[in-house]
């Protein structure tokens, strides 16, 4: 009986010993390096189980294997025995299992982990976290895009775990989060030492269209393009270059966002302090055109002081043209100071004021009555526009085109480009208008012809045409028409055919109309007037004398 009990106890102890000493497949076990040969380490994991592990599994990325005989190491027991009777071991899988345990704890504690970038994959890089491989997205490498990640390869550095899934074997890490945290601490420390108005040195790190970022020793400040110089700056690269050390003034600090605004021009003398004294109203200066817009051109009087020449102040004559047709960028021009607004830092300039008003010059050199010559520039429904000296135009109204034709008819005889002669009628400098007359060239023939003629005058005319309704006659080159009813006092003699072209006839002037430029003429009125005069002078028919006797006496008296 006692012997049976002893055998049972021995068997239980033996089984317990076997369970304790025999490693479980699929677990991490401790072993001892008993030999190194042929690039492999031979490891004893107990219970007379030995296995081989490639030396490269004991090396970190980019480093030589760190293993020697007698070292105790942890390995993963994949199988107790292979075809050669050896245990199948893996150092890499052991490291991975240990790493995952460690990384899960770090992820839960939101702690940093150490790793090394060892490869490049699509969209980012691979990182060895002491046995576990993680993915580092390209956007999480640095706070700014990295063009060359070569210097970072194989370098042990801290990372932040963003996401991990042990079942799928996925780990995503960030280097950027570590840098931002570090920069935030450094930025807070630097900003705490700065105050608005301080003058500091910085290094230009980046240049954009709107300014430059300057490193102030761990924190960046923005140097806006408008704060680089008092003058107009088209691009920041005109003033600074990347890597250059510049002296700047702290303009504003936002404690919440840690944004710092910097300025360079604030360290220079403001040219506007002397503008009013240097550029009095009405003074003329030479400047350089720096910018042209639809509404005018900006002219630099000196670095930092610009004025605007509005399009309305650019030319006396070119009213509706783009400023770029009058001046060009970088051109030097003479301008007059018209207005200064010190508060708004604005100077209004005039270009045309440096030249004499062409209408004033024309009025001085071409008084009323002066004859001028010019090209027809435009034809409108109310007249012609004629080009004159000084690049100005004068207008010939329809009524001033011809003495003999209606304006609508006379204007048909002109076309653009015709050179015409005209007489200056009026110059209105204020309204910039010049009135011309083409018909006045050579004088007023009607006025000259009828200068001594008045209503009731007896004049001699020449018959130029015979018509059914009367006869056409001419006096001193001016034509008139005598109607049939005015050809004679006697109705039987009111026949146009009794006259011949070339006949000279005495007529009485019944009307002088300068507006229509016509003389009213009548033979009948002359005969009646002559009869009346004879009656008054030689008697009255009422006294018994016949009209024939009276006229006979009048004719004898004339003789």
TrEMBL record:
Keywords: Repeat, Ribonucleoprotein, Ribosomal protein, RNA-binding
GO aspect biological process, one term: translation
Domain S1 motif: 26-92, 110-176, 197-265, 282-352, 369-439, 456-524
GO CC terms of this entry: cytosolic small ribosomal subunit
Cited Pfam families: S1
PROSITE patterns assigned to the protein according to its UniProt record, in alphabetical order: S1 (PS50126)
SMART domains reported for this sequence: S1
InterPro entries: NA-bd_OB-fold (IPR012340), Ribos_protein_bS1-like (IPR050437), Ribosomal_bS1 (IPR000110), Ribosomal_protein_S1-like (IPR035104), S1_domain (IPR003029)
GO MF, any single term: mRNA binding
Gene3D superfamilies: Nucleic acid-binding proteins (2.40.50.140)
Cited PANTHER family: 30S RIBOSOMAL PROTEIN S1, SMALL RIBOSOMAL SUBUNIT PROTEIN BS1C
Annotated family: Belongs to the bacterial ribosomal protein bS1 family.
Functional note: Binds mRNA; thus facilitating recognition of the initiation point. It is needed to translate mRNA with a short Shine-Dalgarno (SD) purine-rich sequence.
Protein name: 30S ribosomal protein S1
Native source species: Rhodosalinus sediminis
């Amino acid at each position: 009986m006692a012997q049976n009990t002893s055998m049972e106890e021995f068997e239980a102890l033996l089984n317990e010993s076997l369970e304790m000493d025999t490693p479980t497949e699929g677990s991490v076990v401790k072993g001892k390096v008993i030999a190194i040969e042929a690039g492999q380490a031979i490891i004893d994991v107990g219970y007379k189980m030995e296995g081989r592990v490639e030396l490269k599994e004991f090396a970190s990325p980019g480093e030589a294997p760190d293993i020697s005989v007698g070292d105790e190491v942890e390995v993963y027991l994949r199988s107790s025995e292979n075809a050669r009777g050896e245990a199948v071991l893996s150092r890499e899988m052991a490291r991975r299992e240990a790493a995952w345990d460690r990384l899960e704890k770090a992820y839960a504690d939101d702690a940093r982990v150490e790793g090394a970038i060892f490869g490049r994959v699509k969209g980012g890089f691979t990182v060895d976290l002491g046995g576990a491989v993680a993915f580092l997205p390209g956007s999480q490498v640095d706070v700014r895009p990295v063009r060359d990640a070569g210097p970072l390869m194989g370098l042990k550095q801290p990372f932040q775990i963003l996401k991990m899934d042990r079942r799928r074997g996925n780990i995503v890490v960030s280097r950027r989060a570590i840098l931002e945290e570090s920069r935030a601490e450094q930025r807070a420390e630097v900003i705490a030492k700065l105050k608005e108005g301080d003058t500091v040195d910085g290094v230009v790190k980046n240049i954009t269209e709107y300014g430059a970022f300057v490193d102030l020793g761990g924190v960046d400040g923005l140097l806006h393009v408008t704060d680089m110089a008092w003058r107009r700056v088209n691009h920041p690269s005109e003033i600074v270059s990347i890597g250059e050390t510049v002296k700047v003034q702290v303009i504003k600090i936002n404690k919440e966002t840690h944004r710092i605004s910097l300025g360079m021009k604030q360290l220079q003398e403001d040219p506007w302090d002397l503008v009013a004294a240097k550029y009095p109203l009405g003074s003329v200066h030479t400047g350089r055109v720096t910018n042209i817009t639809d509404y005018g051109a900006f002219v630099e009087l000196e670095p930092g002081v610009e004025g605007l020449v509005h399009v309305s102040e650019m030319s006396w004559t070119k009213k509706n043209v783009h400023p770029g047709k009058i001046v060009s960028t970088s051109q030097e021009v003479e301008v007059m100071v018209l207005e200064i607004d010190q508060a708004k830092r604005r100077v209004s300039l005039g270009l045309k004021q440096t030249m004499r008003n062409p209408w004033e010059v024309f009025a001085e050199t071409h008084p009323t009555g002066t004859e001028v010559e010019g090209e027809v520039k435009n034809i409108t429904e109310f007249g012609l526009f004629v080009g004159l000296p000084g690049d100005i135009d004068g207008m010939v109204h329809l009524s001033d085109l011809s003495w003999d034709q209606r304006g609508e008819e006379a204007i048909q005889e002109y076309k653009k480009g015709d050179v015409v002669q005209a007489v200056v009628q009026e110059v209105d400098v204020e309204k910039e208008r010049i009135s011309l007359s083409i018909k006045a060239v050579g004088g007023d023939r009607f006025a000259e012809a009828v200068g001594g003629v008045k209503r009731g005058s007896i004049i001699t005319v020449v018959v130029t045409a015979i018509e059914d309704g009367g006869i056409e006659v001419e006096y001193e080159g001016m034509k008139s028409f005598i109607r049939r009813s005015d050809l004679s006092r006697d109705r039987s003699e009111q026949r146009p055919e009794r006259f011949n072209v070339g006949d000279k006839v005495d007529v009485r002037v019944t009307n002088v109309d300068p507006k229509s430029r016509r003389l009213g003429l009548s033979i009948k009125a002359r005969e009646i007037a002559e009869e009346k005069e004879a009656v008054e002078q030689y008697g009255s028919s009422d006294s018994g004398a016949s009209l024939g006797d009276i006229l006979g006496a009048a004719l004898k008296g004339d003789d």
